[in-house]
Design goal:
This is Biosynthetic peptidoglycan transglycosylase. This protein is mainly α. The chain is 60% helix and 3% strand. β2 and β3 form a beta hairpin.
Length: 253
């Protein structure tokens, strides 16, 4: 006669499952908050850009950050910034900037894949983010909303804002915003302020040579503000002056 032995089965280890559930819930909750905050930020950018298709911005995130840094460091810097309409800015300056910063500005979609890939390869060689391959529209996106911090996260956000700018604005409006907000020296923002700061003239009266030098200054404006006699500045300005005739403006299309 076979006898079966009945044994109690051990209860399923549910304690650790209950411990995991709160952790998973918190993760889902935080992920939801992050997604909501990200979406809200994008909506804010989109609405703000929509308003700027009609209204002129009084300042940018780049300007506000600079003011805060000057205040933090105890520097007494007088900000120079005066908005002027697109048509009152010298065509020399417009051509010089396009020739120097973004030769295909009129025709591209706000970004250049080849430039981004070249910047990626350069950054890999250097081991850190040294180049961004930014177009004029990308530079405007950064100036309007973002910081000067060089990270891939910021670069991704810059690209999203760039696509918004290209969707909501025509190239002439994008260029007008850029010309009126870009940094040209310590506390110097926009074409009108730059013309007065460096040449005691207006943005409408900039010559070919003056415009070329201002265009060359853009990547390092504060440095060239302090080194106006730079040999590189002079030689590079000559190159840009020769290229200006081939630069296409939005109004030329």
């Amino acid at each position: 006669m076979t006898m079966s032995v009945l044994t109690d089965k051990a209860p399923a280890p549910r304690a650790h499952l209950r411990a995991r559930r709160p952790a998973l819930g918190w993760f889902v909750y935080l992920a939801g908050l992050f997604t909501l905050a990200f979406a809200a930020t994008q909506v804010f950018y989109f609405v703000q850009i929509g308003l700027w298709t009609v209204f002129d911005p009084s300042g940018t995130a780049f300007m506000r950050a600079a003011k805060w840094r000057f205040w933090r460091d105890g520097e007494a810097v007088t900000f120079q910034h005066q908005w002027v309409p697109y048509d009152t800015i010298s065509r020399n300056l417009k051509r010089a900037i396009i020739a120097s910063e973004d030769a295909d500005f009129v025709n591209n979609k706000g970004y250049e894949v080849d430039a981004i890939l070249q910047a990626w390869e350069k950054n890999k060689r250097k081991g850190h983010m040294a180049a961004g391959g930014s177009t004029i529209t990308q530079q405007l996106a950064r100036n309007l909303f973002l910081s000067t911090e060089k990270t891939y996260i910021r670069k991704g956000q810059e690209l999203i804002i760039t696509l918004m700018l290209e969707l909501l604005m025509d190239k002439e409006r994008i260029f007008e915003l850029y010309l009126n907000s870009v940094e040209w020296g310590k506390g110097v923002y926009g074409a009108e302020a730059a013309a007065q700061h460096y040449y005691k003239t207006t943005a409408a009266k900039l010559s070919v040579g003056q415009a070329a030098r201002l265009a060359v200054m853009l990547p390092r404006p504060k440095y060239f503000d302090e080194h106006r006699g730079s040999a590189y500045l002079a030689s590079r300005a000559g190159v840009i002056a020769r290229r200006m005739g081939a630069a296409e403006l939005p109004s030329d299309k």
